[in-house]
Amino acid sequence: MLERRNRVKNISKKGKRLKVLLITMLVLLLVGAGAYTFRKPLALMAFDVFLSGQVEQKLEKSYSPLEGEKPKPVVAKQAEPFTALLLGIDQRGNEPARSDTLIYAVVRPQDSRVLLISIPRDTYTEIVGRDKNDKINHAHAFGGAKMSKDTVAKFLGYPVDYYAAINFEGLRNVVDELGGIELPIEKDIVNKHKDHEKFTIKAGKPLYDGQEALNFVRYREDSDFNRTKRHQVFLNALVQRMLKLDQIGKIPELMDLLGENFKTDMTPSFIIDLSKQMLTNQSPQIRGYTIMGEGTRINGVYYIQAYEEDVNYAGQLIENWMDSNTKTEDLLNPEAEAQASQEAQNSEQP
Question: Which family is this protein grouped under (predicted)?
Fold first, then answer.
């Protein structure tokens, strides 16, 4: 009788253990499915708990408000579209810090859309604060981010809310820390001019390291317009790489790598809240447009005279994207329009 009772007890224990095991497996499956379905909110929650304090502290080093401008009030949730001037600084050694990249960005937090309007660095325009016309990228050499911001606002006819300046040298380490980025290089890029730094970027690689990415944005032996478009491509590739789930834990380290190479008048809390807001929505989509022009020489110096119709169209884009009442499906798409225009031109050719 005792032996039978012990057997029943052992069977009961085994049944309980099996039941616990099955329940545990079921819970793990549910959690796993939930983690997959809600991986973005979970990642953001982890960022809030473990990383946001570190990131905010590191961003304090990059916060650099412009003289004479009051910091904008930080709202709990940025609903209205806003603009920012993105400056890519390529300073080597003791050279003047000219802005090789000038991109006027319109950011729409509500629908996670970003419009990038690129302005060629040799564009001939009035330099605000100097009372003279010159290459638009010289504004930074003359008066830093403040003069660049004022000059671009005057050139386009629309205000600039914020600026963000990044030295390309700092991005080299960031790209390496990300394990490289994807770049659509279909033909080898060879920098071979006798007065230029020599390098070759091989086509068709799945990922490109920091030095290759830096060479990609610095290459200048085709045209200023193509170089400007490459800067858009590079920024888009960098953003897409950083948005991947497995890069979230690296954010504090990436901030360290940027160090003094990143300056902005956006407050750290604004950047963090905006990033979380856009990531909580659908994946950010980036549209690009480049203002074209005609090369000319004035007093022996090469400039680009921007096409008036391109500047006007840039204004239409800004108005359309800055209007918070514009529905997502009604946003002007410059890339689609450019493709349609090219197809129309091809159809007209005999």
Answer: Belongs to the LytR/CpsA/Psr (LCP) family.
State the residue for tokens 């110096």: 301
pLDDT at res. 167:
85
Residue type, 284: P
Do 208 and 251 touch, CB atoms closer than 8 A? no
Say if residue 51 is exposed, middle or buried (CB neighbours under 10 Å; 0-12, 13-18, 19+): middle
Name the CATH superfamily, with its identifier, for domain 38-339.
Answer: LCP protein (3.40.630.190)
pTM summary value: 0.77
Half-sphere exposure of 285 (CA within 13 A, CB side): 11
- Low-confidence stretches of the chain (pLDDT beneath 50): 2, 4-9, 11, 23, 25-39, 42, 49-50, 245, 345
Report helix, strand or coil for 206: coil
- Contacts (Cβ under 8 Å, ≥6 apart) of 20: none
For residue 41, give the nearest of 239, 279, 270 by alpha carbon: 279
Q: 102: number of CA atoms within 13 Å, CB side?
A: 28
39-46 and 268-280 helices cross at what angle (nearest 10)? 160
Where do the structural domains in the chain lie, given as residue ranges? 38-339
Neighbours of 244 (CB within 10 A): 10
135 three-class SS: strand
Supply φ then ψ for residue 151, to 5 degrees: -70, -45
pLDDT at site 204? 94
Per-residue CA distances from 217 to 61, 71, 100, 212, 318 (Å): 26, 32, 9, 9, 25
